Amino acid sequence: MTCSLSSGARRAAWAALVVLLVAALSGCSHYGFSASVKTHISSIVIPILTNETLEFGVEQDLTNALITQFSDDNTLRVVAENDADSILRGAVVVYERPVASYDASGNPREYKVRVIARLTYVDLTRNETVWQDDIEGWALYSVSGEGGDLTTEEEARASALEKLAQDVLGKTVQGW
User: Fold this and answer.
1) Domain 35-173, what fold?
2) What is the structure's pLDDT at 27?
3) Is 2 in a helix, a strand, or coil?
4) What are φ and ψ of residue 120, in 5° steps?
């Protein structure tokens, strides 16, 4: 059994195919392979941040979160300072844990862990600042276990630092 299409149906089928092809290609146009060949910067060093807060160890924890984000992403290789094309320097300038909400009796129900880092990203080959900014990460936790997945300050701190590190990665490699 053969199926023959009229010339109008054939034209319509070709037109639909072209439309689908154009839509598929334009829908993926924001993806590319240029990330790995972006300019002259291919590596980064992330020395331990300084800590301008009273929160012990937060600078080391954020440094580790940043190294993990950049290593997992791999757009920029994390290397030693002598081998780096760029450097991310900075300090943790705010660590706070204010009450975010109260229960009906006026007791704290949720806390917000808020971390701000003042960071500078420098192109070492051209000796110029690419960006400098204060970046914030935060997370809520519930002491009663109600209203959220996080129930301790430590869990919220880890989540806040991870969010902050993700934002730093995005700011550093955006547009690549």
Assistant:
1) Double Stranded RNA Binding Domain (3.30.160)
2) 44
3) coil
4) -135, 130
